[in-house]
Design a protein that fits this description.
The chain is mostly helical. It is 63% helix and 0% strand.
Length: 94
């Protein structure tokens, strides 16, 4: 029979060592991370908001230029409308 020696139980030390040995074993494997579609969408939205915040809202020089061109009756021709339509379709991927 083993008695406590000076307030220390030698059996507790043995069981504690076995517990730490078992918990120290790490199974080899490959670490991976997976992001949900929602997380990816939120990250993209965050990035777009950041870019929008850094971009000036109005380019007054361009607005004035376009207004002047539209007021000129000879500017709005079929060629100009066709060019604008093609640029718009290209910008949306069609």
């Amino acid at each position: 029979m083993i008695e406590k020696l000076g307030g220390i139980n030698p059996l507790n030390n043995v069981s504690n060592i076995r517990k730490t040995e078992n918990s120290a074993k790490v199974s080899p494997g490959v670490d991976s991370i997976h992001l949900s579609d929602e997380a990816v969408e939120k990250a993209e939205a965050y990035y777009l908001e950041k870019v929008a915040a850094e971009t000036p809202n109005v380019r007054a020089d361009k607005i004035a230029e376009v207004k002047a061109k539209i007021k000129d009756p000879s500017y709005l021709s079929n060629a100009v409308i066709q060019s604008a339509a093609e640029k718009f379709m290209t910008s949306i991927g069609l």
